[in-house]
Amino acid sequence: MQAATTPRAGSALVPEHPLEDLIRSDRIPHIWCPGCGIGTAFAATLTAMKSSGIDLHKTCMVSGIGCSGRAAGYVKLDSFHTTHGRAIPFATGLKLGNPELNVVVFSGDGDLFAIGGNHFIHAARRNMDLTVICLNNLNYGMTGGQVAATTPHLARTTTTPSGNPDAPFNLPLLAWASGATYVARWTVLHTRELTESIQKAITKSGFSFIEVLGPCPINYGRRNREKALQTLKLYRERTIIRNHADPSDLDVDFTKQVILGEFVDKERPTCIENYDKTCRLPE
Amino acid sequence: MTGDEACAEGALAAGCRFFGGYPITPATEIAEHMAERLPQLGGTFIQMEDEIAAIASVLGAAWAGQKGMTATSGPGFSLMMENVGLAVCTETPCVIVNVQRAGPSTGLPTMGAQADMMQARWGSHGHYEIIALAPSSAQEIFYQTITAFNLSERYRTPVFIMTDEIIGHMSEKVIIPAADRIQTEWRPKPSGRKDRFLLYKPGKNGVAPMPAAGEGYNVHVTGLTHDERGYPEMSVDTQAQMMDRLCRKILDNRDDIIMTESHHLDDAEIVLVSYGISSRTSMAAMQQARAMGLKVGFLRLITVWPFAEAQISALAERVKGFVTVEMNLGQIHLEVMRAANGKVPCHLVGHPGGTIIAPDQVIATLKEAF
Ligand code: SF4
Fold first, then answer.
1. Interface pTM, i.e. ipTM
2. Could you read off the pLDDT of B137-181 as tens digits, one per residue?
3. Which residue minimizes the CA distance to atom 1 of ligand 1?
């Protein structure tokens, strides 16, 4: 029988995965394609959660819909896979309902910035104490590669067969303008920096936003003549780390240069602090 | 106080400590009242960026262990529908108030109607069962809001309170009993080993216990079709099992959920069926008709969904007909027809919305039809 001969995780042959305790291993295999960037960003998030020292029993992950939105289904924490675009307002209610919770939103660019864009800017404006991690793969992966609010101008998708006529969002600029108190961007190639950033964001109060550029070789890559490895090569060769860069310089344009780094790290009272101070009677 | 204020006070009395709202006439006063009162009671009010966010925040708060509510009217109710489905599918207790105004679209924002009754039944996609209550006075809004929370917690389901602009804005005397006279219920809580806990394994009444986030159960909550663990399972069998349980926990408990009020049904030949503000019209019409010697009775639906089908079917065996009175052009009327099943004639006294139905209109129909 196969089961008897397959070495089990944790046995001498197959060492236990370092994130084993944070993964619902009974849900593996996951749905992500070979070469997809989501798994790396997901692993960085779990690693950061562990190393940050936060109480994991009080930590939740909230996702919307899409390939990245499936992350909540694999994490062994209280995890919520909500409706398309609505992870942030759900997370807002979760946090306001129990301010002791650490709430991490993990979702994709289509979910957070097209259908859910309104919620993103308002949560940032309120400085809701959330960590929002956006896997940006420049298109809608789950539905087969349609144009997104992040798709580069002229890039091909199934709904822009002659190239994208529109311009994409500069996400860190949007986050900065909306009032986020922590904003960073990395690629899945920059796992160390990414993990450190996520750890910082989780332990910091206020609205934190981290954009993670990751390949979607199956849909975006295929239509734009980019194999997964070529995308990673772009991440290595066409990026530069410039902390505190001017947010208006942060367009994602791999024909030129893409700036990574930590762009905003400031303090401002959170939504809950402001509510308590303004609306509650002094004890 | 107004019906809207009575609704807010009822919610507070029921233990609601979270309100996610968005302004809309004629429901705004509920949000305003909650904005003032919730922080005094240690609760939280937030005005979200739209109604979609409002209901999403209420669902989030419910999983944080709170009793949450939102209140809206037609246009906002439409926007909330997708997340109503999420609440049904994930069995998230919450209360949604619709202070109905005339539609479609922006319609008559400051004038009442009862035309969202079918939207309350079927507004979200997919097949599901839902609970909707229809109060007819400010005092009743107070009590029904408490009942709505209790049903919502007992059955882990969204519950609608379908009021309307007229009772929402009307000032009436409301008696608020002492807190110890008010019965409040909470969702069933799990016990036993946390690592063996199954999020959707039902207890006796078909409802599964519900932990809150942060209690150590590592729940996974998804709007995808899921098994007892809460894990997504893309299979026909799992869909059938989940749907069966979701529907049965309401349908099997209809006796507990359906509340009606009967007036002169014992000797009635003709039965008025109504709910909400139109039941006040119907009450007056019944009294007038009886003074005229007509044997008219009145069945008031307090719970509109699930529908009091059995009661109407039984009446259809012995009465001569039904007249449904409602401020739309025939929604519950069709349900009455369905339950009467062709045995007796069913008439409608309807109205496209904007003003209350006068008892005279009911009398005219009674005279004409019977
Ligand atoms: S479709 Fe794209 S984003 Fe989705 S799992 Fe596959 S590679 Fe990843």
1. 0.97
2. 999 999 999 999 999 999 999 999 999 999 999 999 999 999 999
3. A141
Q: How far is the CA of B222 from the centre of ligand 1 (A)?
A: 20
Rounded to whole angstroms, the Cα distance separating B74 from B102 reads 8
Q: Is residue B140 part of a domain?
A: yes
Instruction: State how beta strands A131-136 and A102-108 pair.
Output: parallel
Å from CA of B16 to ligand 1 middle: 41
What's the pTM? Answer: 0.96
pLDDT confidence bin for A4, thresholds 50/70/90: very low
Share of residues in chain B with pLDDT > 90 (%)? 98
Host domain of residue B19: 3-181
B22 touches chain A (CB under 8 A): no
Contact A80 B66 (CB under 8 A): no
Compute the distance between CA of residue A221 and CA of residue A208 in angstroms, rounded to an integer. Answer: 29
| One domain for residues B227 and B312 | no
The verdict on B19 and B161 lying in the same domain is: yes
Please say which residue of B159, B181, B203 terminates a domain: B181
Backbone angles phi, psi at B339, to 5 degrees: -70, -35
pLDDT at A93 over 60: yes
Give the pairing of strands A146-147 and A139-140. Answer: antiparallel
CATH of the domain at A229: 3.40.50.970
Of ligand 1's listed atoms, the one at least distance from the Cα of A218 is: 7
Q: Are B285 and B226 in the same domain?
A: no
Which residue has the CA at smallest separation from atom 4 of ligand 1? A141
Same domain, B328 and B241: no
Closest residue in chain B to residue A118, using alpha carbons only: B49
**Residue of the nearest CA to atom 2 in ligand 1?**
A216
Together in a domain, B278 and B250: no
The answer to whether the CB of A252 is under 6 A from ligand 1 is no
Chain-centroid distance of CA B12 in Å reads 18
pLDDT digits (tens, 9 = 90+) for A208-262: 999 999 999 999 999 999 999 999 999 999 999 999 999 999 999 999 999 999 9
Domain range holding A184? 26-246
Find out whether the beta carbon of A38 lies less than 6 Å from any atom of ligand 1. Answer: yes
Using CA of residue B87, residue B88, residue B89, residue B90, what is the dihedral sign? Answer: positive
**Rounded to whole angstroms, how far apart are CA atoms A86 and A88?**
5
Residue B297 · residue B262 · CB < 8 Å = yes
Q: Which of B228, B255, B282 is the last residue of a domain?
A: B255
